Amino acid sequence: MDIRLLGPLEVAADDGTPLPVTAPRLRAVLAALALRAGQEVPVADLAERLWGARRPSRAEATLRDYVRRLRRALPPGRLLLLPDAFLLAVGPEETDLGRARDALRRAHLLSAAAPGRAVDELDAALAQWRGAPLCDLPEGPLRSRELRAIEDLRLCAAEDRFDLLIALGRHGEAADELLAAARAHPGRGRLRRQALDALSRSGRDAERRAFAREFGAPSAESGRPAHRAAFPPGDAAFVARGVELARLRGWLTGALGAPAVCLIDGPGGVGKSTLAVRAAREVEDRYPDGMLYVDLRGADPRNAPLDVAEARRVLLASLGTPGKEVPQDPASAVAFYREQLYGRRVLVLLDNALDVAQVAPLLPAEPGAAALVTSRKALTGLGRGHHLHLRPLATDEAVTFLRSAAGGGEERGRRAEWAELAELCGRLPLALRIVAARMAARPCWRVAEFIAALGDERRRMDELTADDLDLRASLVVGIDHLAASREPEDRRAAAVFPLLGAAAVRSFSPGSVAALVGCSPGEARRALERLADAQIAGSPRPGVYALHDLVRAAAAWQAARLPRPGVTARLAGLANWYLGSLHRVNGPLALAEHYRRRYQAGADRYPQGRLFTSVDESLPWADEVLDDVLSLAHQLAGPEHDTGAELGGRPLSAFALEALRALESYFGMRLSWRGQRRLCEIALEVGRRTGDRFAEAAAYGQLGKAAGQQGRGIEGADLLRRSIALFRSVGERTEALAATLNLVPCLGSAGRIAEAVELAERTLAEVRAAGIDEFRPQLINNLGRCHLFLGNHATAHRLLLGNYETAPLPYERTIAAGVLAEYHLEVGEFEEAARWVNRALGHAAEQPFDPFVVAQQRTWLAAALRGLGRETAAHLEEMQARAVLEDLNHRENSHLRVRMDEKHSVI
Hints:
This protein is of the alpha/beta class. Helices cover about 60% and strands about 5% of the residues. The chain is built from 41 helices and 15 strands. The strands form 5 sheets. A 5-stranded parallel sheet has the order 7-8-9-6-10. A 3-stranded antiparallel sheet has the order 3-5-4. Strands 13-15-14 form a 3-stranded antiparallel sheet. A hairpin with a 2-residue loop joins strand 11 (about 465) and strand 12 (about 470). Helix 33 packs antiparallel against helix 34 (about 735-750). The radius of gyration is 37 Å and the shape is elongated. The protein starts with a strand and ends in a 15-residue tail after the last helix.
């Protein structure tokens, strides 16, 4: 079907044949339903649209008769009779109004990135109008209400088009059209401003002055409605949120048949109110009967939220209605409020709403009216409205705003410094505004000096205060509301908040917060959900919660005022939970018994923590929390934490050592060298200060292993020798032997092959004597490779083949098969080399593997394929190996490479 409303009413079948809808009342019914195509239209609503207050006594029966007659004229299945409503089953593309709206929606999406295409869409939208809409319908409420809204839609589309033409430099072609439009619609201030702008840009100054004189009197008489005095002014200095503004403008100008309701939510300081006022001011010409504003005080740290009755009185006062005229009875007051708004096209801005109960009674119900609502919570319970979830500014927007408001640019600091300052402000408009005000008052200060002032998280809240702008108060007002609530869950959430600032970690889960606070995971989850609902915490994905940087600073500021002994006890709970979880990360891995026993003992010492059922669950979790583990290790490494026995008999400052030991296999698989090095450095620092030689040995051992993995064999060997000596000095023979396993390949990669062979054979003898058979596969793999490099091919092949056949673990079989492939390459047996590499890659797929080993295997396969004359396949394997290494090098800032003309060891 095709129904055309934007001109004389026309209706056609799918093949274009006109349909016989000629009776005036039937045409009115069809138009009313088509204006809400695809929606249920209640019988009472349809009667109101057709007759208004003059509805006949048998209106419902009459309507049903009209609809039955209309159904016979339309294709089957298009007009549905529901129990108390009717529905015209047509899509947006089947009415000219729907097509126009779709084109406008596309234009709004394209306006920023592709303004030329947006103009084309607006042209397509405006082309849908064929004259005066609904001009051949009978007089009545339907025409009087809908015509005004449809005309507004057309004019807003035209105004958007003129804006884009001017922005594209096409002001010359737009000027005459704008003059005609502005004269045809003298009440449209936006058209007048556009006409003046186009004339000015076109150099037509005399015409511009004449036009300004011509419209001086009309604009004084009718340019602005009377009911705008209390509405806040727009902030011309705020340059940001272009995408969000376009979206709001589309919602506010594209709604017909029902009021537009736009719900803006976001955390404190994110700029909700500023955006709402700007959006309202941009479309104010659409609402000639009033721009009404009330601060509902849901985010006021000093005053209680307004109750509905008081808010209603404020809004009615803006309309000129004295408070004494408002009925005292609540039900009568609601009806009175609706009566005052009846027939008026007003925009109501409900700023800083607390909840749905405060907002719902204040929303306008008239078609053509609109409401903008700002709130920290997402007001999903309203059941209608467009939701805009506001987040901090993008870095470029934040820097632009900061520079423009503060004054200065490169002479005050490099762009990277401006960006760092914006990040310290969390890219929150309120914080940026405060810092910009302080910078403007200190024009000789450089950006670096403000960075230094904001660098201390605990002092940052004190710095972010200027005149009547207090970021801390804005951020924690939600906490105050929760603390004052009658709900126990709300009060618990308020109590949890400062403890989130006491810990240096950036993300939380119900389990970690339960350990931190000392409650059950269920209670912790409900508290975190309360904080998320109040926009105090964010939840990037289910089960994970985080505080925005500046909210964290506010929490840290509160935490600094808590009694220290209690905070230390809570940090100990969190540290124990992390260590229990980190040890359990290894549960699903296939590991040598030495490591399996260590991790099981750790899990027994730290009974709290997460459980993992698969490698796909455990290793990604460790990836996610590694930065938090490092932050917590740094926090707990201070001398004040050297006493006590909070960590399974060790002091809190031993957290870095305990985490390092729990993560050794993880580091070996993921090659997260930067995180590993930082944890080693913290453990070394604490170990040296406290005289803990075991801690020093463990740190040197992992640093040496990592150096060997990165090709720094001599450095790795020196570190590992220190580790071995320290382990033996404290009676840790098994740990010393485990470190020796990594020393052998370090010597080999440094070119000290004979020394590596002697050490491997001596260590094999000690391992056999000690009955530690689990160490033999790794030693034999590296010993066999050393013999290969020395040219002892038969010895190498015997050792490697026997090792492959008896190796119990996927890692050991992978290494053995790979070195066997290397052996066959060395002796020119390319088919065998390819077979062994494919076998190695098959074993590597049995569980996650370190990327360097996989890249080396693919390089060996490339060499085998090239030896067989398969150049294209060889090139593809080399490309895959290079991609793996490039990713690793980029992530870890390393410079690994794999070449066949070099000898590489395997750890």
